[in-house]
Design goal:
Largest interface: A-B, 42 and 40 residues
Distance between the termini of chain C: 65 Å
Oligomer: heterotrimer
Shape of chain B: globular
Radius of gyration of chain B: 18 Å
Helix content of chain B: 55-70%
Largest sheet of chain C: 5 strands, antiparallel
Number of helices of chain B: 9
Strand order of the largest sheet of chain B: 1-2
Order of helices and strands of chain B: HHHHHHHEEHH
Helix content of chain C: 25-40%
Distance between the termini of chain B: 18 Å
Chains: A mainly alpha, B mainly alpha, C alpha+beta
Order of helices and strands of chain C: HHHEEEEEEEH
Strand order of the largest sheet of chain C: 1-2-3-4-5
Chain lengths: 231, 209, 225
């Protein structure tokens, strides 16, 4: 059950210890922009989780089969075309373009889906749904997965990639919902004029980041617990 | 200036302080928080962003006549992604340690809102000279923002500036400044300061009228 | 979003995207061809430059020559395989092994190089390649004086343990960095795990004369510990 232990480590790492917003600083724009009220914030978190899962799945597939060094598909095409089967084909230079295309398309599809089946939610999102495309968190999750597809000794399967994506999305949702809850209270407080809005939000985020630093080492403990349980 | 677009020189000056991408427009926060632990990575990131911004501006400005409304964002993204890949490869080849330190934040320039918004607002509608001026101005503003935050964080957090020690040996390094909470706190307080300065100047302008 | 362009309109506009994709693709192919070797060289230099320091008696250039001619790959019982570097002296005689290893640290992944002697029985050195630990605390794991020098001379057979007080000399104890116990423990855990998995396969290879023989990554084999 080593796989389960590793998946737990990835999930907790992405959600809590190395929280996408509070540790890696990705997804700050929606974090500051959409965190005024808890219900919109939670909805945005769910939308981001949904998109990042789809994007991660698609990008893992493309990277595994096409883009990484010595990927199977280009090698097969090269051989069919009569090339020397020993040459290593490396298309990874096209990774970033491919990823951002996939992400933009995923957001487009999610937008159409939400518009059709959840029109109420679609209205409340307004312009922020298409803005998920420029959400650093999604591209960041894909880049992290790509990092683990570069090293032939530690190749990540689709299960690990999806765990990272979902874990990251859940972490983003936790962070943005907490921030929304705090900001709803802040609206009733006496914040100095220059700090109103993004200023105080960032200071609160700093304190939240300090709090989340306390999660370090939690994955080790949970891993040990799982190993004990499964013995 | 009501019916005229800003000229090239005006755009250049605008980008540095009055419409500073970080302090006033609140764009491009991800790299601003991530790489400003020390001045050297911050400046490298600013240089990389400047390369991408100016190149993308030039390219988009050259093809602005061919852009159709529905596919223009796609074209912007494609262009930006290409230049970011070039910048990333260049860094990996000639500044390998720095490239490793900056890590995933160089490719994240693709989703840096500063660049897409400049393409949308300026270079898709203006000729090349104006686009370049706008790009250079915004890049300088971005570098100024990154530099100011990095200076505060590095001096307080490590006692150095650009790797050179500037604080006395007895300075207890405020480790928190180099960590994520320090990034948020520094940016929040500096934003507050920028806002305060902006308000004072607006008040003075109102008084002088 | 209200006026939908005609299908013909979309196709008509797509030619620009396709043309740009081709142009950009060509530009990127050019950049990649120009810079690929330099980047790969940077990566290789990172490891090869450290080998003479990690394994006393090893010669950097000769090691590089030998390892670039033939990649040494060892596999454990589960089929997990790992590239190792055979460190050779200037005359080609085997001087030791360098084993790359990595795992989760306190903040993020830690990558290290472990130096072993020719029989893979003693650790000759440790070098931290990559880490993102807490500056001023955990990132002292890169410091030779404070941390990595302790690994030289430790036996590869006893798992290393981390203590916060002064360790008994000659034992398998490593003193943690003050205030960075988790980072120190992570490094030891990575070293222990990698050595436990791969020291037998390396010893088997050493018994074969230490020759760097090329071998394709094997599937799950019947290697016994």
């Amino acid at each position: 059950m080593e796989t389960l232990v590793i998946l737990v480590q990835i999930a907790i790492g992405a959600a809590l210890i190395n929280n996408f917003v509070l540790h890696y600083f990705v997804g700050i724009c929606p974090f500051l922009g959409v965190s005024r009220r808890v219900d919109t914030a939670f909805g945005m978190g769910c939308a981001v989780t949904f998109v990042v899962t789809i994007a991660a799945l698609l990008n893992w597939t493309f990277t595994y089969f096409i883009l990484r060094p010595s990927a199977p598909l280009p090698a097969w095409v090269w051989e069919m075309a009569g090339g020397d089967p020993q040459t290593e084909i490396d298309l990874s230079v096209l990774s970033y373009i491919m990823y951002i295309f996939v992400i933009a398309s995923s957001v487009q599809f999610v937008e159409m889906y939400v518009r059709k089946f959840f029109p109420h939610l679609y209205k409340s999102f307004g312009v922020y749904l298409p803005l998920i495309t420029t959400n650093c968190a999604i591209l960041f999750a894909c880049l992290e997965i790509m990092k683990h597809l570069d090293d032939p000794t530690g190749l990540w399967g689709v299960h690990e990639a999806l765990t990272l994506a979902v874990g990251g999305g859940v972490g983003f949702t936790i962070a943005i919902s907490l921030m929304a809850g705090i900001r709803e209270e802040l609206d009733l407080c006496d914040v100095p004029e220059p700090l109103k809005g993004p200023g105080i939000a960032l200071i609160v985020a700093g304190i939240m980041a300090m709090a989340f630093m306390g999660f370090a080492g939690v994955d080790q403990g949970i891993q040990n617990a799982i190993r004990l349980l499964l013995q | 200036m009501a019916s005229q677009d800003p000229t090239a020189v005006e755009r250049f000056i605008n980008g540095i302080l009055p419409e500073n991408p970080v302090y006033r427009q609140l764009l491009g926060m991800c790299p601003t928080l991530a790489v400003t632990g020390a001045v050297k990575p911050a400046m490298t990131m600013a240089a990389a962003t400047a390369f991408v911004l100016i190149s993308a501006n030039v390219m988009i400005s050259l093809i602005r006549g061919l852009l159709k409304p529905h596919l223009r964002i796609l074209v912007f993204t494609l262009t930006i992604a290409t230049f970011v890949t070039i910048a990333d490869r260049f860094l990996a080849a000639y500044m390998y340690q720095m490239s490793k330190q900056l890590g995933p934040y160089v490719p994240l320039i693709i989703v840096n809102c500063v660049i897409i918004s400049r393409c949308e607002i300026c270079s898709s509608k203006q000729r090349v000279g104006v686009a370049i001026a706008d790009g250079v101005g915004m890049s300088l503003g971005f570098a100024l923002a990154l530099g100011s935050i990095a200076t505060v964080r590095e001096i307080l957090g490590s006692g150095t500036w650009f790797g050179l020690p500037v604080m006395p040996e007895s300075w207890p390094k405020w480790g928190i400044m180099v960590l994520p909470p320090g990034a948020f706190l520094t940016l929040g307080l500096l934003l507050g300061a920028a806002e305060w300065i902006g308000r004072k100047r607006a008040e003075k302008a109102k008084q002088n009228r | 979003m209200d006026e939908q362009p005609t299908r013909k309109g979309y196709i008509g506009q797509a030619w620009l995207v396709i043309l740009l994709s081709l142009v950009y693709g060509g530009a990127l192919a050019g950049v990649e061809t120009a810079l690929r070797e330099t980047i790969a060289e940077n990566k290789r230099r990172e490891t090869y430059d450290r080998i003479p320091v990690l394994v006393p008696g090893a010669d950097g250039d000769k090691t590089r020559e030998v390892n670039q001619a033939d990649e040494v790959i060892v596999a454990d019982a589960d089929g997990n395989w790992q590239r190792v570097y055979l460190a050779v002296a200037a005359d080609g005689a085997p001087a030791g092994w360098v084993l790359p290893a990595g795992g989760q640290g306190f903040a993020d992944r830690i990558d290290v190089l472990i130096g072993l002697d020719a029989q893979a029985s003693t650790i000759t050195g440790l070098y931290v390649l990559d880490q993102k630990e807490t500056p001023g605390l955990g990132n002292f794991i890169t410091s030779e004086a404070l941390f990595t020098n302790q690994f030289a001379g430790k036996s590869a057979d006893d798992p290393l343990t981390v203590v916060t007080t002064d360790p008994i000399s000659g034992s398998h104890q490593i003193k943690a960095i003050t205030g960075a116990t988790i980072s120190s423990e992570s490094v030891c855990r990575i070293v222990n795990r990698t050595l436990a998995t791969f020291k037998q396969p390396i010893r088997r290879r050493a018994l074969q004369g230490g020759k760097a023989t090329a071998q394709a990554p094997p599937g799950p084999g019947k290697d016994t510990q």
